[in-house]
Amino acid sequence: MKNNKTLFQKVWDDHVVVAETPETPAILYIDLHIVHEVTTPQAFSVLREAGLPVRRPDLTLPTLDHSTPTTPVSSFKDLLVAGVGAANQVRQMEQNCEDFGLDLLGYGSGRRGIVHVIGPELGATQPGKTIVCGDSHSSTHGAFGALAFGIGTTEVGHVLATQCLLQRKPKTFEVNIKGTLPAGVGAKDLILAVIGQIGVNGGNGHVIEYRGEAIEAMDMESRMTICNMSIEAGARAGMIAPDSTTFDYLKGKPRAPKGADWDAAVDRWKDLRTDDGAEFDKSVTIDANDMQPMVTYGTNPGMVVAINDPVPDGKDASFQKALSYMQIESGKAMTANSVDIVFVGSCTNGRISDIEEAANILKGRKIADGVRMLVVPGSELVKKEAEDRGLDKIITAAGAEWREAGCSMCIAMNGDIVKPGQLSVSTSNRNFEGRQGIGARTVLASPATAAASAIAGHVADPRSYS
Amino acid sequence: MKAIKRMHGRTVVLPTRDIDTDQIIAARFLTTTSSEGLGKSAFYDLRYNKDGSEKADFALNQPAADGCSILIGGNNFGCGSSREHAPWALLDYGFEAVISTEIADIFKNNSLKNGLLAIVIDEESHEWLVSNPGAEITIDVETSSITLPDGHEVGFAMESFARHCLLEGIDQLGFLQNASTAIEAYEENRNWTP
Fold first, then answer.
1. How much of chain A exceeds pLDDT 90, in percent?
2. Can you tell me the ipTM of this complex?
């Protein structure tokens, strides 16, 4: 069955400009390049010095998200909330877009937001595309059956100048999720469990395809949460075959095909499935039926435990170093830990369904004394939709802060910072040492678990609050 | 990029596994529009206390680490973010090579494109290097081998094109630009447009 192809192989083959040889990688064409202010200035400088234009401004989608404050911005002074470096970086991005003829979705556009939130909501993210961005969570877009991965700044320059990348073909990894997720357990819990099982290096060198009943049953925003964290297992990309859920999501989006083009696109997209009999380099099957809400206890996203289970014990120095940093004890459930900060947002969980999931738990309740909770929409469109639905009122009535769109406390380079020693329950994607601020102790969780923890004042099982 | 055929240097060891790019350079140092001068921020929170004083027990702060140009890291070194600031910071700090049993994909790509030798070796040799900080070793890109102080040679695999670019000092952007005819043909001939 050698001619049977995986989803990945189909998208890869469709984008090979020059095939790889033992001596040289493939030249791969890129259909969508999303760019932001932090990982591009040095690349624009390379183009400027070489006198090169951006080859395809029409395939380049620039926005501002990482170093932008989540307080209102109408002047340069407002940008300084994030520090003078961050403010200058935003201004530099605006200048670069003007100089190179790029249509920046910046301040005043109404469409600014996190790179991996705006691509899908604009309909620019589509099945079968190759999508890159100078951000490792580019894997998010794979939820649509796109081949999407993060690149470094040198490669950002390559794509700006040539719309192509030099790539060796990665291996394929099937992650099959059988069964049905129980009530009160969602996509974030599932992907944390997957990373816990395959490890933070389990996907190195591979593109993951998530398959199975539990994946097919998910809405698009849940699928994005799954693919988003592929990089946390070391895989540069994660993919899910597009289906009617995908097509329904995209139909009518501003940059989705229209009319006859839409019909032709759907016909083409329907073939983007792994053929029966196609082989993966690696495969694992995970049962969704017994899944619990999951949280992390250590300093990487693979150090994960079910909400009511005891934190495991580990002997080696790296494990002990992580628990010591986190001030977490083996043998006790994570629910024993009191909470200082709760953050709902990021490219993992900053979409409308995530805000809604948190709001459903906050409704009619108050967050615990001494807890600070930030709810940060992933984009200006998410913010508007949440406000149209009155979710912001529920959030602020509970005592949480409703902020402007951006990466916020996921990355602590924009003024939103967890203080040294504080314990943060966060819907973001990385619990690395210092990720949310110097000495910050991060517990990764779903929006529901985050909201429940804010109310309880300690890490809490969301199923008691629904 | 300047050509690198071989380098000789002394090692310093950070044996912890899964050292992520946030530890190599924290996001708060990424609010720059330059790729230079990042060495002072490398491993900042591991190197310094809150008051700015050095953490005496951190390997890079030991007198023996002065002048070391080869970093021996734990398994899965460089996982996490795609920030190229990580290899920029290590190079600016004075490192010319990173050696581990496994190096995360994006960090490895970024490193090799900047002339930071990201090298994966077998567990046994790695264990020896971890147990012998300060070892003087030679890395030969041409023969894809490391020579240990006792003369023992350890081979390593490196993607052939990355190796070629290191040896010849080739800029990969130039290589892509030379393919412009093929790129134009691809754009004209594809059966759908993005």
1. 99
2. 0.97
